[in-house]
From TrEMBL, chain A:
Residues 167-358 form the S-Me-THD-like C-terminal domain. This is DUF917 domain-containing protein. Gene3D superfamilies: CV3147-like, CV3147-like domain. Residues 7-162 form the S-Me-THD N-terminal domain. It comes from the Bacteria. It holds the Pfam family S-Me-THD_N. InterPro entries: S-Me-THD-like_C (IPR048350), S-Me-THD_C_sf (IPR024071), S-Me-THD_N (IPR010318), S-Me-THD_N_sf (IPR027479).
UniProtKB/TrEMBL annotation, chain B:
Residues 191-359 form the Hydantoinase A/oxoprolinase domain. This is Hydantoinase/oxoprolinase family protein. InterPro entries: ATPase_NBD, Hydant_A_N, Hydantoinase_A, Oxoprolinase-like. It comes from Elongatibacter sediminis. The lineage of its organism: Bacteria, Pseudomonadati, Pseudomonadota, Gammaproteobacteria, Chromatiales. It comes from the Bacteria. Residues 2-170 form the Hydantoinase/oxoprolinase N-terminal domain. Coiled coil: none annotated. GO terms for molecular function: hydrolase activity.
Length: 376, 530
């Protein structure tokens, strides 16, 4: 299967949805991928099971502040260099590019890289959503080393980081990336085809494409939210999903803690009830509470979309008065195991609540689907 | 005395103002030759009030001319584009996402050269002066007359764009130039798009401004004139010749500013009800709330300062139809044909205006023509009209607290009842020419949009610096220094960056120093509305 330039619009929208408020605006990424495809042609998208066990893969991603990326994104040669340096360090050639993060702008970088390097693109990633740190990846959780890790910039400087832990690599790369201008290209998680099959979230590039298409189709037929939910229910991972809340933004607070932008978005119900939802985010949405009760919590996905068009809304575009539907979606099973929760569960983000899968949490008190008896 | 003029697609409105008072106003059809309509409208208000042209201190004009020209792809020039960015940004070339029809108008004259800054103002790479000169020579050989210059992080530091412009001017001589940092915000592609749009209008803007000048000469008005920009503040005529793109969306802004002025309210909802649509927006501190999302204009993505306005399909000419036991109002409308088609004017079509007359809360046309309408139909339509406005009001509100609603525009007669969530409905005198009055409000603005590192500078010092820069801009554009007030401060921490990097946007505005208007115009020519 090959992606077309037209498909990129749908992939971008699906990726923004799976970005759960973070991951950066896929627009810049889509332009990068569009230009790469115009110059170098379409990359082949291969199913994970069709990749040879002994194939050599690596990931390519952009790391930086989304605001900086709107001004200074990848130049192209920096992407090629990241792959070439990885090959040199490994002492063998790369056979395919593997996305690391399907949510947000990094859904597009691997498409750009695969097109430029004339390599196939694996239909999988390491999150099935977006997360803010390098170690928050299924590859790491299940024992694939994040290093050697190559960082390149637009001046074609490159660094190879080789550390014991992903967390240590993350710390070093953060510092280097600021010096390099807060917008760098990263190649990491080199692995075999067999390791990819064992650790990756399979099929997520196609899933993003299909989610984007479902929203577009729904708009055409007049009910994009309904089309989105109905489509999610047919997918392998995102099938436990529901509209958690329909409301408008009535308060928005942001603070910078531990170097990360933490925010709280408060929504008030559109009906006359006193229902209030508070969504806390650290780049991505972490937890949604209705009148204090948890309705969905990381690593499950909390997505905000425009209540009419179902357009995903990134946290940077949140504003007072917006009409929003908050949709809770089950995370891929590989993110819900005990070893995964230690890395991407609520405690990894400083939350005290335990992880409870969305399907086991009570639904909203006014939701018709929920019999009273299931309320606690 | 000053005169506000709004040149819309359908009508040209004028208002003669003395201090806070409206001395005279009028509404006339817009003419093909825009200046004829302006002359006629100004002549009418001067004649009605018996004021001599010599007593006019200042004329302010709002116009949709440039927006329409761009969207309709009329009179656009081929644009030379020089992006000062390499080695950065090569992955996304200029014009990448433009519609093909527009690309044919703009041509393919794109150059990427070395230079640019980092997010925190550090130099990313020095300006490749040779490459700029080489690009300029090629553009000159192609006969290009207008050039857009963009650069990475130029809102943080515009020096490289300025230097590149000097080199281009040296090589090309008489050429129109648009520097991206003077019109756009952070976001290279969107800012560059705005610069290219502006450059494409360079000759049209000179012609239009010249026709405005000619109109005033014909009227013997020697006073300076200003043109309103999209945030509701003024640009000098000389400045608008160079930056026509800043007039985009000034129409809705002027209506809202006029509503604030007429009602005396600084924080309120405004509904501008015209013949076909109703624009609802929110006033904060007397200015329209701005849209935070990227705005598409004629298919091109930009990051202009646009008012956050919701357009509803309701106006005086909206069709009223009974179908499936339901009464519907709009979105279809008889539009400007209302005076022929509506029942009250002897026509055949039932419109929202007919309903307002039948329900006995508006008094125009011939009420006898709508006497026979069934009371049930009239009541259902009245409810429908109010529900449409109530829904729009609720969507634009930022809190559950009731706020006042100011109605302006010719269709304001459609509303007679309370609207839920609204503390009071105000229909000021002269509501019909609120846009012309909005244009006449003499304020100029300044804005800073930059990234600061709070850990280095400290938050207070950064805020202070940003405020001072914005105030300096407003003063340069002609504001009286003591009148400049902060309108808006937006702090957005940069995600994924430690070190307290914060994008800080400060916007200020002050009153135009009218008494020294000639000096102001000279300054405005350099500093302009930013």
């Amino acid at each position: 299967m090959k992606l077309s330039i037209e498909d990129l619009v749908d992939v971008g929208r699906g990726a923004a949805f799976l970005g759960t408020g973070g991951g950066g605006d896929p627009y810049v990424g889509r332009m990068l991928a569009t230009h790469a495809i115009q110059e170098f042609g379409m990359p082949e998208l291969v199913a994970p099971e069709d990749v040879a066990d002994d194939a050599q893969l690596c990931t390519v991603a952009m790391l930086g502040a989304p605001t900086v990326l709107t001004e200074k994104a990848a130049c192209g040669d920096d992407v090629d260099l990241a792959v070439r340096r990885m090959e040199k360090y490994l002492g063998r050639s790369i056979d395919a590019i593997l996305p690391v993060e399907i949510g947000g702008v990094n859904s597009m970088l691997p498409i750009m890289a695969a097109a430029r390097c004339d390599l196939p693109l694996v239909d999988a990633d390491g999150m099935g959503r977006a997360f803010p740190e390098i170690q928050m990846v299924s590859f790491n959780i299940y024992g694939v080393s994040c290093t050697p890790l190559v960082v390149t910039d637009d001046h074609l400087n490159s660094l190879v980081v080789d550390t014991g832990t992903a967390k240590r690599a993350e710390d070093l790369v953060r510092v280097a990336s600021i010096e390099m201008g807060c917008s760098v290209i990263l190649s990491s998680y080199s692995m075999s085809g067999a390791d990819m099959k064992r650790t990756a979230v399979h099929g997520t590039m196609s899933l993003a494409l299909e989610i984007g298409r479902a929203i577009a189709r729904g708009r055409h037929n007049g009910n994009p939210i309904d089309a989105l939910i109905r489509h999610l229910r047919t997918t392998p991972y995102y099938s436990e999903c529901r509209v958690l809340f329909t409301g408008k933004v009535t308060d928005l607070r942001r603070e910078t803690t531990r170097g990360f932008a933490i925010g709280h978005c408060r929504l008030s119900a559109l009906d006359s009830s006193d229902r209030v939802m508070e969504v806390t985010f650290q780049n991505e949405h972490l937890v949604a509470r209705e009148n204090g009760e948890v309705r969905a919590i990381v690593p499950d996905l909390i997505c905000m979309v425009d209540s009419e068009t179902a357009e995903p809304i990134p946290v940077e575009a949140l504003k007072y008065g917006q009409r929003i539907r908050v949709i809770g979606v089950s995370a891929p099973p590989v993110l819900r195991t005990p070893e995964a929760l230690a890395v991407v569960g609520p405690q990894a983000f400083g939350l005290e609540d335990a992880f409870v899968p969305i399907e086991n949490l009570p639904e909203s008190s006014t939701s018709s689907a929920s019999p009273r008896g299931t309320q606690k | 005395m000053r005169i506000g003029v709004d040149v819309g697609g359908t009508n040209t409105d004028a208002a003669l103002m003395q201090g806070d008072a409206v001395v005279a106003s009028c509404k006339q059809p817009t003419t093909d030759n825009v200046s004829d309509g302006i002359v006629s409208a100004i002549r009418t208000v001067l004649g009605e009030s018996d004021v001599s042209a010599a007593d006019v201190q200042c004329v302010m004009i709002g116009t949709t001319h440039f927006t329409n020209a761009f969207v309709e792809r009329r009179n656009l020039l081929d644009v030379g584009i020089i992006r000062v960015a390499l080695p950065a940004s090569r992955g996304i070339p200029p014009l990448i996402d433009w519609p093909e029809g527009l690309l044919a108008e703009i041509g393919d004259h794109r150059y990427l050269v070395g230079g640019g800054y980092q997010f925190d103002g550090r130099l990313n790479s020095p300006l490749d002066e040779k490459a700029v000169a080489e690009a300029a020579r090629e553009l000159k050989a192609k006969g290009i007359r207008t050039v857009a210059i963009s650069s990475v992080f130029s809102p943080v530091n515009g020096d490289l764009e300025e230097r590149a412009a000097e080199i281009v001017a040296d090589v090309m001589g008489d050429v129109s130039m648009t520097l991206s940092h003077t019109i756009g915000r952070i976001g290279l592609l969107e800012r560059e798009n705005a610069a290219v749009m502006n450059a494409s209008l360079a000759e049209l803007s000179q012609r239009v401004v010249e026709s405005f000048r000619a109109a005033l000469r014909e009227l013997d008005i020697a006073a300076p004139f200003y043109i309103s920009q999209n945030d509701g503040t003024l640009m000098s005529a000389d400045f608008v010749e160079r930056y026509p793109v800043l007039t985009f969306a000034s129409g809705p802004t002027n209506s809202m500013r006029g509503a604030a002025y007429l009602s005396g309210l600084k924080d309120a909802l405004v509904a501008d009800i015209g013949g076909t649509t109703t624009d609802i927006g929110m006033l904060n501190s007397g200015f329209p709330r701005e849209s935070s999302v990227a705005v598409d204009i004629g298919g091109v993505r930009t990051n202009f300062r646009m008012p956050d306005v919701m357009a509803l399909g309701l106006g005086g000419g909206s069709l009223v139809v009974e179908a499936d036991g339901e009464v519907r109002v709009g979105p279809r409308s008889v539009g400007f044909k209302l005076p022929q088609k509506a029942r009250i004017f002897g026509g055949e079509t039932l419109t929202a205006s007919d309903i307002a007359v039948a329900a006995d809360y508006a008094d125009f046309g011939d009420p006898a023509q709508v006497k026979h309408l069934s009371p049930e139909l009239v009541e259902a339509a009245v409810q429908r009209i109010h529900r449409i406005v109530a829904d729009g009001v609720d969507r634009m509100k930022v809190s559950a607290d009731p706020v006042p609603l100011v109605l302006v525009g010719g269709g304001s007669v459609l509303i007679d009842r309370d609207i839920p969530g609204v503390s009071e409905v105000i229909v000021p005198e002269y509501a019909g020419v609120a846009n012309a009055i909005g244009a006449s409000i003499a304020q100029v603005s300044g804005e800073t949009d930059r990234v600061f590192l709070y850990e280095d500078t400290g938050r207070e010092a950064a805020l202070d610096q940003a405020r001072q820069e914005a105030v300096a801009q407003a003063v340069q554009a002609g504001a009286r220094p003591e009148s400049v007030e902060v309108l808006d401060i937006e702090e957005v921490p940069l995600a994924y960056v430690p070190g307290g990097a914060v994008r800080l946007r400060v916007k200020v505005a002050g009153s135009l120093a009218l008494e020294a208007s000639e000096a102001v115009q000279a300054k405005g020519a350099q500093g302009g509305g930013r």
